[in-house]
Amino acid sequence: MGLSKIQVLLQPVGAVPDSVLKFLQEALAEQFDGCTFSISKSIEIPSHAFDERRDQFKSPVILDLLDKETHCDKILGICDFDAYAEDLNFVFGQAQHGGRTLAVYLPRLRQEFYGFKPDVSLFLQRAVKEAVHELGHSFGLGHCRLPSCVMYFSNSLRDTDKKGKEFCSVCKLVMASKAKG
Ligand SMILES: [Zn+2]
Ligand SMILES: [Zn+2]
Predict the structure, then answer these.
(1) CATH fold for domain 7-180
(2) How would DSSP label each residue in the chain?
(3) What is the mean pLDDT of the chain?
(4) Which of 2, 49, 121, 139 could make an S-S bridge to 179, C-beta 3.0–4.6 Å?
């Protein structure tokens, strides 16, 4: 895909199960041929990112925090807490468009968040799709109109579950052209 030599750091913020990090590392390497994905030690959740009134974390503050790490091209925060951004009630993930930092937020990807029986495999599939989607943004991609493409905007988990973890052929081309600069 022309993204070779790009190094992406998976940065757990607070406690994140190893099994989740390893799964993401492998699944992302499959989708971004040539990119290197490494897992960093966890960093502390910054207390100033917490919004007491909403009982949620502020995603833009998390992205700023991630930007302080230096040696990688992209820093993907893996966060097992709920967050929001701007006028949205919550976000599954957020990325600086064409930038270095991005994050995914795991709690709302779990069935048990909605009172259903846990489904680990479904949870992991959702986490991969959200991570691939945010990485797509960080490589400069916008939203795609194809509901099966990973860059389709997920308004709800129903959208997330319907789409694949792959880029459609158009998004692939756009990303390849951006990678060339
Ligand atoms: Zn998006
Ligand atoms: Zn697409």
Answers:
(1) Collagenase (Catalytic Domain) (3.40.390)
(2) ---TT-EEEEEEES---HHHHHHHHHHHHHHSTT-EEEEPPPBPPPGGGEETTTTEEEHHHHHHHHTT--SSSEEEEEESS-EE-TT-S--SEEE-TTSSEEEEE-GGGSGGGGTSPP-HHHHHHHHHHHHHHHHHHHTT---BS-TTSTTB--SSHHHHHHS-SSPPHHHHHHHHHHHH-
(3) 93
(4) 2
Instruction: Please tell me the predicted confidence (pLDDT) of residue 144.
Output: 97
Average pLDDT over residues 88-107: 94
Separation of CA 133 and ligand 1 centre (Å): 6
Where exactly are the structural domains of the chain? 7-180
Separation between Cα atoms, residue 42 and residue 44, nearest integer Å: 7
Centre of ligand 2 from the C-alpha of residue 54, in Å = 33
Residue identified by tokens 């503050």 is 61
What pLDDT score does 69 carry?
Answer: 60
- pLDDT computed for residue 80 by the predictor: 97
Which ligand is the nearest neighbour of the Cα of 136?
A: 1
Considering the entire predicted model, what is its pTM? 0.94
The residues facing 56 across adjacent strands are 51
pLDDT tens, residue by residue, 124-164? 999 999 999 999 999 999 999 999 999 999 889 999 999 99
